[in-house]
Every structure is written in C-alpha cells, then in structure tokens.
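[SOLVED] Need 3D model of a two-part complex

Original post:
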Amino acid sequence: MLEVSGLTVEYATGKAPVLAVDDVSFSVEDGEFLGIVGESGCGKSTLLFAMAQLLSPPAQITAGSVTFSGKNLVGMTDKQLSALRWQKLSVVMQSAMNALNPVKSVAAQFADALRAHGMTSRKAIAGRSAEVLRLVGVDPVHLKSFPHQLSGGMRQRAMIAMALLFTPELVIMDEPTSALDVVAQRSLMVQIKELQRELGFAIVFVTHDMSLVSHFSDRLMVMYAGQVAELGGTRQIFDNPLHPYSKGLLEAFPGIRGPKVPLKGIPGAPPDLSIVQNGCRFLPRCPQRLDECATTAPELVPRDGSTVRCLLYAGACTNAQPSTGAKK
Amino acid sequence: MTELLRAENLTRHFKIGGSLSRRTLHAVDGVTFSIGEREIVALAGESGSGKSTVARLLARVYRPTRGQILYEGKPITQIRSRKAALAYSARVPMVFQDPFSSLNPVFRVSHGVLRVLKLHRPELSGHARQAEAERVFDVVGLGADMLQRFPHELSGGQRQRVGFAQALATKPKLILADEPVSMLDVSIRIGLLNLMTKLRDEEGVSILYITHDIASARYVADRLIVMYAGQIAESGPIEDVLGDPKHPYTQLLLSAVPDPKAPPPSLAALAAASGERGEPPKVIDPTPGCRFQPRCPVAIDACKTVTPELTAAVVEDEAFGATGAGVMAVREVACHVAQTGAEVKAFT
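Solution:
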C-alpha cells in the first residue's frame, strides 16, 4: 500500500549538503504496524516528513519515490496532495501538546479539518467530532475545551482522534507518546493498537524508545545516520538482533527484572552527516568492526528474513573473523 | 549509614487563580524522607507528582509552606547570611534536565566551571582553579581539551557531563539531579548512569536522582521513593520495593514498564492491565482521603475519607531491622490496605 523506494533527503546548508535520509526503501502493507527507531539526528523525523510531503526548504527530496495506493506522492501539487491528506493519510505530530492551536476549542479545530474536506453540515460535523473523540476514549464534552484545559494524555488522544476523522488508510505517528509518563504511555499504545484492529488502518510509528514498540509493532526498522541499519520482524530483531547497532541499543536498556548487570551503552556519538564517509557509518562506535569496514560501505543484505546493513553478514566476508579486541 | 539530609513534613502549596477564585495547589504535601551519605536515592513518579518541587525545595529555590529540611542536623530555613547560603548551595548543587539550555551558548564550557570555582572556592589561585577544572572534567570522563569547547560543539551526553563537572567543582555532598538523562538518547544514557555510580563510589557524593524511568532508577539507586500527587506512596531499598511493591500505584508503575525481553503479552492482557484511563489526581484543593483511591481497584471505604499516613510496612525478615542499617533500610508505605498486612495485588 505504501512503497518508499530509494528516498533521499538533503538539507542544503552553507557548506556541504547534509544527507539526512540516504537511499531508504521499505514498504507498508495494509493494516500493518511498522516501527521506526533510532537516536536523535538519525533522520527518522525527516524521513517521516518526506513521506508525508511536508518538507520545506532547506530540506529537499533529491531522489526516490513514495508510492501510496499506486500514486507517487513526490512531485505532486499541493492540490493533489490535499485531496489525500486527512482522508487517506494523516500525520500525528510529535508533542501533540504544541500541535494543537491554543486559542481554538477542540471542536473548532476538528471542524476546520472536516470543512476543508467537504463536510459542511453542522450536525454532521458535530456528530463526527463526538464520534472520533469517543473512539479514543475521551468524553465528547471536551469538544468545547481548549487545549490547555486537557491533560497531556487527553491532548495526545485528541490529536489521534483528529487524525482519524476520515478513517484514513495510513496514519503516520511521530513519537506521539514521548511527553507522557509510562502509565499514560502504555494506555495510549494499547488504545492505538485497539483502534488499528477495529478500523484496519496501517501505522508508521517513529520513536527513539525501542522498548515502547516491542509489544506493538509487526515489523521494525532501525535507522542509523540516515540509513536503514536493519529491517525485520519485531520479535526477530528483539530476540536475535543482527546489526551491532541494534544489539547495542537493546543492551542499553537496564532491565526491571532479573539480575542487575553493568551495562556499557554505545560509546561515542553519531557521525556528522555533512561529511561523506567511505566506510561504514557506525564504524567508530562498533565493537565488532572488521578491517574492511573503514573502506567498504556496507549494502543491505538479506539474512534470516531480515535485511541488515553490515559487512559481518556480507557474503564475501562470511569467513572473516570479527576483529574483536581491536578497539574497546 | 549516616544521615546527610532529612526532610520533615515538607509541604509546598501554590496559590492559583485570581482574588475571587483563589485555590491552592498542593504540589508537595507532608513529605518526610532522608538521604544518607554515599547514597543514591531515586525519586520516582509521574509528571505533576511533585518530584521536581521537592528538588527545588532542597535547593532553596522555593521556601517550604510547612515542614523543614535538616542538612547535617541543622534546619536550612535558618540560613540567613549570604555566606551560609553559598556554603549550602556548594554542598547541595543541582544538575538540570535539559543540557541544551542549561549551558550558556556564548561562553566556552570552562567559563561555567571556573566561575563556580571562583565563587565557591575563592581560596584557589588561578592555576589551582585551572587544575581543579581539569580534574573534575577528567572525573566525569571529558578530556581537559574539552574545557575550551563551546556548548554547541558538544553532544548532549557530553553537555550533561559538563553539568555534573560543574556540580562536582564545589565539592558537593549531595547532587540534586532532576531527570538528568531523560533528554539523552538511549545509547548514551547508560554512560551517564554509570558516571553517577562512579561519583558515589569514588567521590563519595550522594545523589537524589529524580526520574520517571523505574528501570534506570533500579540500575543506579540504592533506595527508591515513589511519589504520587505530592505525597510519598512508598519507599524503601530499591530491590525490595521493586521485588515486592506494596502500594497499588507502585504496582501500576511497574506493570507499565515495557519489558522488551519478555515475550509479548496478548493485546487483551495489556488492555486489561491498563483498564483505567490514567486520570490525573486532584491536587488543587484536595479533600481528605487517599489521592490514588479513584484509580485504585482495591480501595476500601476508609480510602475515601482518611488520608493514609506513611508508616513502616510489615517486614518479614526481622533481622533486617536489627542489622543497624537503621532508618535507611526501613520500608514504608502509605496505603490503608497494605497497612492491614493484607497482600495488595492491584496490578501485575
């Protein structure tokens, strides 16, 4: 249903352009839940904006396509896009707290979106607004409320309700739960998943917190420095991560149960994307580096049902021993 | 373990609304706890539970409405002179949540550290200050060359280390760390948590670690205090509390932590576990009664009318209290049901 292929986004800066999203390809099936994880600066939010055609200069899509229900969104006019937005595809922004207009009531903001897409009858607007709010478990009396009168969790729910006004086929979510505490977070995730089962839309869920999606997403895409590091089934990646970065991310979570073990995290910081590198981008932080990593940029290769970008799994190097201990 | 700081019946109310609709927000209500020497105490709770207000009360940013804070046995409300105030803030510095806005962007990071040294340790000469700045940078895992960097040249993790270096420069006894890692990426959080344990073990400082992340609290802390709606719900040695949480809110908090290593529970099980919608508690002009009662599945009649006191929970192991660990090892819970000795199983 959604096919992203070879998508590349550059930020035109004074010096060299910054390659924020580099040749990213993936697809989303009907009714699927795809999680995209990575640390800040890895390009996950830029990717999501590019998918929804919401980028503004200096960011620019320089290559690739985003095919949604058979149509390429890249290069569409605003008019063509607005026919799809809200109705077929909607976006829930990060910190929904700030994405709502503080001087308009929730009802007015819902009506705005509904009217823009041809619903004119006041009665129908009021009916639909109440209906979606009820869907996300918020009492429709809050339609009269202004955003500051709602709690954080309720605002996030109102944003999700808004995205569901036209029952779209795809909802793109950018860290919708990051401002909530764990209890509210889980209750919202369960709700999103229940809505998905009920209404059948597909979800692309961007987050920096891998453990959050562990029980909810069907497939997981791990991004590092603008590229796909690993893409595979969620359980597969959690049980048997292939890329050293995925492994590192998983080991960076202290457990709540079981024995306490000292953890190391991943030392170092992500690379500067304005500097073109020859080898693997994860090399300086990688505990399993090979000699070739400095010179050969790894390609995505299929492995055990996942795809992974790492020379450890490239055919030519299967016999090579990881030079562990080369650098701690 | 010697007691370093003690808060007694600490209370902070804020007046809100105009003169016609004056209401009172009970941010912190009758909180009593202590922090020992060389101890990391985690203060956990949801947003709005009053945990940051507690830190600001300890840092003397706010004056308590009621109650008092004793530092090494002396009440800090009696601090009058500037000298005494400086001495206290040197012993109890704060590390802030946002490493991106807590460093001045137009100065090199050495500026902050050197200023702190000049203010709090005027006896040091220029050379000694520089040497001390290099020493604290080294302790927090930054090279001496980092002193000459500007904040924008550092990553989030490095900036937060600068925050700890500044706190360390005053020879502190207790660092108040308000969500020090929540703005950092998962991959570098652990480094900062390891730094906190290192500061405890090697520099001998205590840390009040304020967080909403129970898993990271377990990783670094010796003791856990769980706050709910401005009051302490439960406290005790962290492994004991997490292994056998007695307060229903602690149980809810624990059950909500995603465990990626566990096989995924069914959606129905998840939905049942988070059956309640997580309504925020009433802290504006609260009425007597347990503040968790509207969300509590095991509430009894008393919960609606009588505010539960924080009292020592039944500890099965009697030797526990006799080891001389004293007040630090006591488990306390503020729940009518748990206080009857009944086993509370509200959320699993």
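Edit: The first strand of chain B starts at residue 3 and ends at 16.
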